[in-house]
Design a protein that fits this description.
single chain; binds zinc ion; alpha/beta
Length: about 425
């Protein structure tokens, strides 16, 4: 009996214990629930701070729309030039949010060497089953009062050489730092470009940053006034600059408030850097006419083709701190290989004055007068004094006919090419 009684007691005890454990679990669940509820209502932040997003420049602004599902943080600088670009990014983020996806935009900002403002935006788009991160950037030079696009931070050929051929539009964002430039590519890849190792790729002009151009940045003296509704032509001068002839041409152009494009040879640029700087400052366009005027159609090595432009680019950048946008192949001679290698607009001409053959200002003028049209690209050579002298009558003749004398860049800008 005693044995039985013992086992009875044991059963009762076990029941109590189970009940207590059950109650205990329920209490714990209730307490955790209550704490979680309190935490969520009082402290929970659906948009937590990201420690990597340090904010050293601009006034932090934060906006949240819980209903639409977006939160944006961005800096305000009280300077329309940079604030407008930032607003664009912010507005796009807000618009990207919808019932299915939440958008969080955060940023990090800094001032580099007292005048470069670099803002990197990190946009996180969350939907039920995935999270996507996109980087964007706004870079601004306070000293020059200008926004810095990729091609004013890095020189033309950085992509071919450093980014394994990635195109400009693969670059999602650029961040300027004291020691390097950080490139954000598609798929969250990044590429670090150290100033110390890659000075020839750097387009920034700051004495603290190694680059091929270490002088004060050049600015264009006067802003051009172009009426897009009136006809325009581009005078283009090849093979210079030449200290014996080019300055006289520049004087003539200035006298008539006319602009032109100079397709320069690298070998001549190297020996006349001041002349190159003058051409730039007077508002003309500088184009690349290769290093030493070789026939590209005869070249079978792609590296040789590119090196002939790269070397001239370097010389031009070294002289004026700017890269040429357009190239003109010597003799207008190209090949299939050339077209594959040269990833830049090759500019030929619509009027060949044959000035190198006639050396006759009257004949040059007659050809231009006969064929000129809205959008004409006129081929001349500023290494020949007759061509330079012809401009004394050609320019007033063209202006009298209502033509504005503009650069190749201008022809592109106004849709003439
Ligand atoms: Zn030429």
């Amino acid at each position: 009996m005693k044995k039985y009684s013992n086992s009875y007691h044991r059963t009762v005890n076990l029941k109590h214990v189970s009940l207590l454990i059950g109650l205990g679990i329920i209490s714990i669940v209730v307490i955790i629930g209550a704490v979680w509820f309190l935490y969520r209502t009082l402290f929970y932040d659906p948009f937590p701070e990201d420690a990597s997003m340090t904010k050293q420049a601009g006034n932090l602004t934060q906006e949240i729309d819980d209903e639409k599902g977006w939160m944006v943080r961005y800096p305000v600088f009280d300077d329309a030039a940079i604030d407008d670009s930032i607003s664009q990014i912010v507005d796009e983020s807000k618009e990207a949010a919808d019932a299915d996806q939440q958008v969080v935009l955060d940023y990090r900002s800094k001032v580099v060497y007292d005048h470069y403002i670099s803002v990197l935006f990190k946009e996180t788009v969350k939907s039920e089953d995935q999270e996507q991160i996109v980087y964007r950037s706004v870079n601004y030079d306070k000293k020059q009062k200008q926004l810095l696009k990729v091609d004013t931070i890095l020189r033309n050929q950085y992509s071919q050489d450093l980014l394994d051929g990635a195109a400009d539009n693969d670059v999602k964002a650029v961040e300027i730092n004291e020691q390097n430039v950080l490139i954000y590519l598609d798929g969250q890849q990044t590429k670090t470009i150290d100033y110390s190792k890659n000075k020839e790729y750097i387009a920034l002009t700051d004495p603290n940053i190694p680059s091929l151009y270490q002088k004060e940045p050049l600015t264009v003296e006067k802003t051009k006034e172009i009426d897009p509704d009136k006809p325009m032509v581009a005078l283009t001068f090849d093979d210079g600059p030449n200290p014996n002839t080019t300055p006289q041409l520049l004087d003539t152009l200035k006298k008539y408030n006319a602009h032109a494009t100079f397709f320069m040879l690298g070998t001549n640029v190297k020996y006349n850097p001041e002349l190159v700087a003058r051409v730039y400052q007077e508002g003309h366009e500088i184009g690349n006419h290769s290093w030493e005027h070789k026939d590209f159609a005869r070249m079978t090595d792609k590296d040789e083709i590119w090196a002939n432009y790269q070397k001239a680019d370097d010389a031009i950048f070294e002289a004026c701190g700017h890269d040429p946008t357009h190239v003109r192949p010597p003799y207008g001679s190209v090949s299939e290989l050339y077209n594959k290698v040269v990833n830049r607009d090759s500019i030929l001409w619509s009027i060949d004055t044959r000035d190198w053959e006639s050396h006759d200002p009257k004949a040059i003028q007659a050809i231009i007068e006969k064929y000129v049209n809205d959008g004409s690209v006129i081929l001349l050579h500023d290494i020949h004094i007759d061509s330079v002298e012809a401009m004394e009558t050609v320019i007033p003749m063209l202006q009298k006919k209502g033509y504005q004398l503009v650069t190749i860049d201008d022809l592109y800008r106004y849709g003439k090419i």
